[in-house]
Amino acid sequence: MSNEADPEDRRTPRESRLKQEHRESILSALKEVHDRVYAAQPEGASPKLSQGWVDRRRLLLVDLALHLCEEAVKGETVGTRELAEKVHSVLFVAKELAPGHALEKAAELVLEALGEGDPDAHVD
Fold first, then answer.
1. What are the helix (H) ranges across the chain?
2. Residue 5: DSSP 8-state
């Protein structure tokens, strides 16, 4: 058995990490897309399962996916609980747009797992 660390466990030098300018560029692009999603929202109420309702759910899914992306790149570390909560939200809405694909079960598993993890954990 080798005493050498697994390459996956080694910390990379700061230079090989995401640069702040790239992080800001990505966040800016996400904000622009977010603004477009809000502008695209259909006006008025829509009955459930109508095309307007489906369009609203699709845009909500895009909105939640954007929040997931923002959470992933916004800081030097990633809050594991916050990331898992965002994944749950995406799955919860996606289940309505993809019935029969066990997304509800996946969302429930993520929710259960939230109770098991360290609420203050961050990934560097």
1. 20-39, 51-73, 80-97, 103-114
2. P
In sign, the C-alpha dihedral spanning 107, 112, 117, 120 is positive
pLDDT tens track for 31-44: 999 999 999 998 88
pTM for this prediction: 0.77
Structure tokens that stand for 96 in this block: 């309505």
Three-class secondary structure of residue 68 per DSSP:
helix
Structure tokens at 70: 């923002």
Structure tokens at 2: 């080798």
For the record, the structure tokens of 94 come out as: 């996606």
Give every CB contact of residue 97 below 8 A, 6+ residues apart in sequence: 54, 57, 58, 61
